[in-house]
Amino acid sequence: MITALDHILLATPDRPEAAAAARRFFGTLLGLKEVPMPSTLEGRAHCWFQCGALTIHIGPEKDFRPAKKAHPAFLVADLNQVRAALEKEGHPIRADDAIQDVRRFFSEDPWGNRLEFLQRVTE
Question: Is the pTM of this model over 0.85?
Answer without folding.
Answer: yes
